[in-house]
Design brief:
Its EC number is 5.6.2.1. InterPro entries: DNA_brk_join_enz, DNA_topo_DNA_db_N_dom1, DNA_topo_DNA_db_N_dom2, TopoI, TopoI_C_dom, TopoI_cat_a-hlx-sub_euk, TopoI_cat_a/b-sub_euk, TopoI_cat_euk. It holds the Pfam family Topo_C_assoc. The protein has 17 helices and 16 strands. It has a five-stranded mixed sheet with strand order 1-11-10-12-13, with no helix packed on it. It is of the alpha+beta class and 612 residues long. It starts with 10 loop residues before the first helix and ends in a 13-residue tail after the last helix.
Length: 612
């Protein structure tokens, strides 16, 4: 059976959103393909049961079979939303001072570039070269354009700025009406019904066309992202559930499949971009399936805790093995455990040169005295890992052994690869991976840091939250969770410092006023306390305000390139935070924003005595 919808058939017959009877035949890749008939039956049950189907409640994960490959039995949804098609504006850029008349396709691409101009992104050589190659390829040869440098996009930039200003200056009622219309369109795709329960969908729209940015210093940054059409999208639905309607006239889904082993509702790929990866449309983080995955993930980390001493003894034993391969396995695992490194795969020339444990090269490591090493490489998302660390003497000796006689560009662990290392991890413990190590170390570090808190009578919630953030920061540093320093960081910091100066000035004025009152109680100043007692109250309040601003300044500086949220979302067992907050009377909303409270709803009822 073909996995494609017949585009030659009528749109209304094939894509009406009516319920169809699916074939029970098996397609390729081990999942069932949907057969579409021409029978017209009842409309989608999603639109008729919005209020009658309750949101998913607490799930009994403990009794669930975590090894089951089947994720659901029935799945029904409305497909995916597509961005509106491009509307030409008719503004021509200039080529050597003369208007360059473009067709709609060319104009849209030129507008992508004009929208990005003025940012650091368009100043990167790789980006400019890639975009130039892509843009010149769609221009007609008769236009005579040889270089991006000869094109002035300023007319389009001015048009964009004018349009933006006009949109911003629209009446409030018009903006509100637009938001409501967009929300209504999103709501149509926002929920699905899985095994009879209503669940939120995380992403409702495919990626719009534009310029590819990538993560870090990606070699393909600047290339074009094609417009995703229904013909690029495969939707996943229940075998006997209705097929979602494709609401783009004249188009059809690439395929409709029944794959209950997958948790994605749809998948698509930019066919026009070489090496583009497949993108997926998933359920929201607070869905039952996602919550189950989280609980199982932290369960594996907790299991690692129970076996950690045995595992560490094994890799330390291998570290001193006469076999170079065994020694490399042991040492690599030691680094993954100690430094929360990723395993690391080999990279092709058209991928960013990011590094993990197995892909470390001699040039990335400097052997120091006193059992220390310095690592300097680009990790995930091209974030720099640059640390000097004291390692176990045996690890230090082993690394010296591995680098001996090698050139800088040679692999540190030349006898092992990611596959062999992953095999070894599974030998140590079923389902063990570098991610499990990272989750364990992040969680145990947070628990140990929070255990250092000793409550004092004067500690208010704010001080407790500061302590929590500092503990969170230690985990982020361990996992090398970094973020790019904002372009306007200095401006942001100056605003905070100016506020701090104001608070200090206010405090000093109050203290001086109190001294003057002590000398002459009849002194009166506008907006100043009238009595000594009132001064004390105002001074206490001013001190607290000043301390708050001082903390904001120090926090801004310390965390300018540290991403606290990554470890909180992905690696720290939420029950550690929940139980600490309960035991120390800190409202959970002070450490978990709304999205995290929804994502980790399963952790909120944990007992006070729970320990990771």
């Amino acid at each position: 059976m073909s996995d494609k919808i017949d585009n030659s058939s009528s749109h209304s017959n094939h894509l009406s959103g009516k319920k169809r009877k699916a074939s029970d035949g098996n397609g390729s890749n081990g999942y069932k393909k949907r057969k579409i008939s021409n029978e017209d039956e009842e409309e989608s049950i999603i639109t008729n049961t919005k209020d009658s189907i309750k949101m998913s409640g607490r799930y009994n994960y403990e009794e669930d079979d975590e090894d089951s490959n089947i994720k659901w039995k029935t799945l029904e949804h409305h497909g995916v939303r597509f961005p509106p098609f491009y509307t030409p504006h008719g503004i021509a850029p200039l080529h050597k001072g003369k208007p360059l008349i473009l067709n709609p396709v060319q104009e849209e691409i030129a507008t992508f570039w004009a929208q990005a101009l003025g940012t650091d992104f368009t100043e990167k050589e790789t980006v400019r070269n890639n975009f130039e190659e892509e843009f010149l390829a769609v221009l007609d040869k008769e236009m005579g354009v040889k270089s991006l440098n000869n094109i002035d996009f300023d007319p389009i930039v001015k048009h964009i700025e004018k349009t933006r200003e006009e949109r911003n200056n629209r009446p409030r009622e018009e903006k509100k009406r637009e938001r409501e219309e967009n929300a209504k369109l999103d709501a149509h795709f926002r929920y699905c019904i899985i095994d009879g329960e209503k669940e939120r969908v995380n992403t409702v729209m495919v990626e719009p066309p534009g310029i590819f940015r990538g993560r870090g210093e990606h070699p393909h940054a600047g290339k074009l992202k094609s417009r995703i059409l229904p013909e690029n999208v495969t939707v996943n639905v229940g075998l006997d559930n209705m097929i979602p309607k494709c609401d783009v006239p004249g188009h059809a889904w690439k395929a409709v499949v029944n794959n209950p082993e997958a948790t994605w509702l749809g998948q698509f790929k930019d066919e026009g971009r070489e090496k583009a990866g497949t993108k997926y449309l998933f359920l929201a983080p607070d869905s039952k399936i996602k919550s189950k995955n989280d609980i199982m993930k932290y369960g594996k980390a907790k299991k690692l805790k129970e076996n950690i001493e045995k595992i560490r003894a094994d890799y330390m034993r291998r570290m001193v093995s006469k076999s170079m391969q065994e020694a490399q396995l042991g040492t690599a695992t030691y680094l993954i455990d100690k430094l929360a490194l990723r395993v690391g795969n080999e990279k092709s020339e058209d991928e960013a040169d990011t590094v993990g444990c197995c892909s470390l090269r001699v040039e990335h490591i400097t052997i120091e005295k006193d059992n220390k090493i310095t690592l300097d490489f680009l990790g995930k998302d091209s974030m720099r890992f640059h640390q000097t660390i004291e390692v176990h003497p045996l690890a230090h000796k082993a690394i010296e052994r591995f680098v001996k006689g090698k050139k800088p560009e040679e692999d540190l662990f030349h006898l092992i690869n990611a596959s062999r290392l992953n095999e070894y991890l599974k030998e140590l413990m079923p389902q063990l991976s570098a991610k499990v190590f990272r989750t364990y170390n992040a969680s145990i570090t947070l628990q140990n840091e929070l255990a250092k808190y000793e409550e004092k009578p004067r500690d208010d919630v704010e001080k407790k939250v500061k302590f929590y953030k500092n503990a969170n920061r230690e985990v982020a540093i361990l996992c090398n969770h970094q973020k790019a320093v904002p372009k306007n960081f200095d401006e942001q910091l100056k605003r905070l410092e100016d506020k701090l100066k104001e608070k200090k000035k206010k405090l000093k004025e109050l203290q001086t006023h109190k001294k003057n009152l002590a000398k002459d109680s009849s002194i009166s100043k506008p907006k100043m306390p009238k009595t000594s007692n009132a001064c004390d109250t105002a001074i206490k309040k001013a001190k607290k305000a000043m301390e708050t601003e001082e903390y904001k300044v120090s926090e801004k500086i310390e965390n300018k390139n540290i991403a606290l949220s990554t470890s909180k979302i992905n690696y720290m067992d939420p029950r550690i935070s929940v139980t600490w907050c309960k035991n120390n009377e800190v409202p959970i909303e002070k450490v978990f924003e709304k999205t995290l409270r929804m994502k980790f709803a399963w952790a909120m009822s944990e007992d006070l005595e729970w320990k990771f």
